[in-house]
Each structure stands twice: as structure tokens, then as C-alpha cells.
Amino acid sequence: MTFVKLENTAESMTTSVPSDGPDGLKKNVLGTSSIAFIVISAAAPLTIVAGIAPLAISIGGVGAPSAYLIAGVVLALFAIGFMAMTKQVKALGGFYSYITAALGTHAGLGAGLLAIVSYNALQIGLYGLLGVQASGALATFTGITVPWWVFALVGVGLIYLLGYRGIDVGAKVLVVLLTLETVIVAILAVAVLAAGGATGITVDSFAPGTVFTPGVAVILGFAFAAFMGFESTALYREEAKNPDQTVPRATYIAVGFMALFYAFAVWILVQAFGSADVQAIAGEHVADLAFVAMQQYVGDWGVALMYILIVTSIFASQLAFHNAINRYALALSRDGVLPARLGTLHPTQRSPYVAGSAQSVVAVVIIVVFAALNLDPYLQLLIWVNTPGVVGIIMLQALTSAAVIVFFLRNRGLTRRWYVVPSATLATLALLGVTLLVTSGMELLTGTSDLLFNGILVAIAPVTFVVGVIAAGRIKKRRPSAYARIGGLSND
């Protein structure tokens, strides 16, 4: 691997990025819109609206839409510092590289391992939901019943093939799928607004009396989880056109779009059933509130289309996470932490296809185990596997925001906007608060009040981080040259 060293004139720190030689990923293939589509797709917006928002309404009531705006504001603050780091630390590893640069190599490897585990948990857990939704859609349209795991395994194969073909091919698929998700929500919105809602159009959801309530505070964890994956913009730096501009633009577009999309779509659901009744109705229709609204305001064809687009929404999310996982694996492989084989790129597609193969094999094994044990694909595969991923990503966001503060206070000579450190400080405090909310309200995510079980799921993320820290110490003693490369940085 050939590297270009970029000297930081303010400090002795250097960053290492792959050259434009034959060992690198495809160059100049992703513009702002492509990166934005990739990371927004990871959040599966339609799946969130149809699958999670009803539960948020049943708990948070009329004020539920505001929770997504609050999450958007906090993550916008986070993005300011996050993007300021991308201009200084140009390595491939995203969270992993930024935390290494500011908090040290041990914390950096802990973050890298946590990122790999968390993104895998998010991606693989979704195969349970994909299988359930695809199986249900087929049964609804044809009366044919096919086991969920068949669709899950087919999904693994299709996602691998798209990842193998390269990020530009996957991006084109995601553009189409995300556009369709947006269109179906727009159709429902137009129908509800044209009918004047259930009891007239109101903005009660955004009034202070409904926003600042215990119920809305409880569902903030759901709101933050709905943005999962937006932070992976930095992972595509090597493949982006003019990355110093496209990556920040894509990040802000992704945060802004998701905040407005979620708040608007959930508000439409509130209007569809009326402020006075929506919470009770959502409690009775947690699994199908969006479908009930679609049936009432649009009709059978809208319900049928939504069934199909829920499946494609989940698929799009998994493809986006698959790409992010492969790039973390590539970064850790380049740095000598993971086996060098995982860093192999396809000679013509320039995709990390070996890392993609490994990720797909892990997914297949987990799907087969859950199917063989006859475990529930939704309540067990999705919930058990996804939950540690949600906790892990929020932890990584908090650590990265703290890293921004440390990095710029240490490197005062670097050019930056005056508000970068204050924004990162506010984001760090808010993300720590969200971490506490999510972990203390774990029963809402898992659907069980079993303290031991919930405790185990919460512990997976911090334990993974600690394992990475310990591993860094062992690498330092046994392979100092590999230790020096951790984070894609040159550590003196």
C-alpha cells in the first residue's frame, strides 16, 4: 500500500490517506447527492415512520413529532464538529480515525472495534425484519407462505452483489429506492391534508406544552435511533468528488432531511387520527398505524404499495450499512489490525469485496442459527441484535464529539470556525444524556422488563470498546509497527 503523508503545519500530527494508485477505492465517483442518498437510506426512513413512529406516538402522544426535531438539532451540532475534523484528519476510518487523533491510539482502536460490531449489529438484525416483511407481503398478495429466513438469505446475496459491483452502482439503486420511500409518504400527506385530517389541521405537536413532557423525553432514544447511519458520510471521503465540500454538504443535507422528514411524516399520522385520539389509537395499532391511515385516506392501492416499499426500504438500509461496514473493515485492515486479506480490493470494480464476503458470511451464520433454533425474527433477531448497535453508535457519537473538543483545544493554531468547540461541547452533553435515556429505558427498545437481559444488551457496547483498548495495548507490545498505523495516523 502506498500512502501520501499530509503534514499538518500547526502540529506534528500527520494523517495517512491512500494515494490514487491501484490500491485505492474508486476515485471521484460520489457527489454530494450520492453520499446523502447512501446515508439517508441507512436510516430506512419509511420503515421508521411505519414501524417505529406508532410506538413513539403511543408513548409520547401528540408531541412525538417534536422529538425528531430535537434529535435533528442535537445531531446538527454534532455534525459541525464532526465535519470540522474531516478537514484535518483525512484518513478513511471515520469515528475510528477521529477518536484516535484526539483521544489516543488505545481509545481509537476501542472505537474502531465498537464501530465494526455496532454497524454489523444494525445491519444483521434487520434481516429479521426484512424476512418478516417480505414474507408477509408475499402472503398478502399471493396467499403463498415462505419462511422468513428464505428472504433473509436472498437479501444477503443481493446486498453482497451490489456491494461487490462498487459504491457507485449501489448509490444508483439507493437513489431510486429512497425516492420511492419519499413519494409514498408524500402521497399519504397530500391525502390527509386534502381531507383536513380527522378533526382539522393543527400544530399542537409543536406547542411547548406538548413538547416538554415526560413522554417526549422518554422517546428521544427512538428519535436518535432513527438517524442511525448518517455519520458514515466520512467513510466515503476516498471515493468522493472534492471531499472537503461534498462530505460536509452531504452530512448536513442528511441530518436536515431526516429531521424534517420524520417530524412531518409523524405529524401527518397525528393529523390522520386527530390530536385527541391519536395516542390511544396508536396504542391499539402499534404494528400497523401507518397502514390504517393509508387505507383510510388513500385506499387499497396505497396499502399495497406501502407493503412493497417497506421491504425495499429495509433492503436499502442494509445495503448502506453493508457499505459502511466494509469501509471500516478496510480501514482496520490497512492499519494492520484486521487481517490484510480483508483490505483486498477487486481488480476492476475497486470494491472491498473480500470484506463484503466476510460480512455476508457472518450474516448468513447468524440467520441460520436463529432459524434453526426457531427464534422469532422480529422480537429476537431484530431486537436482540439491533439494540447493542443503537447503544454503540450513540456512544461513538458522544466519544467523537468529545474528541473534537480535545483535538481543537490541543491544536489551537488550526483554522476553524469559532463555534466548532461550543457546538461540540453542547453535542457531547446532549449525547451523554441520550445515552443515559436509552440505557435506562432499555425495556422500551427490547420489549421486556428483564433487568439481567437488558443489562447484557447494554453492556455489549462498552465491553466491546474495552476489548479494543486492551487489544491496542497488546498490539503495542507485540507489533509496534501496526500500533503506529492505528487510526490511519502516524503516531510518534
TrEMBL record:
It is a multi-pass membrane protein. Keywords: Cell membrane, Membrane, Transmembrane, Transmembrane helix. Pfam families: AA_permease_2 (PF13520). Its main location: membrane. GO terms for cellular component: plasma membrane. It is found in: Cell membrane. The keyword Calcium does not apply. GO terms for molecular function: transmembrane transporter activity. InterPro entries: AA/rel_permease1, APC_superfamily. The chain crosses the membrane at residues 35-59, 65-83, 95-117, 137-162, 174-199, 211-230, 250-270, 301-321, 353-375, 381-409, 418-439, 451-472. This is Amino acid transporter.
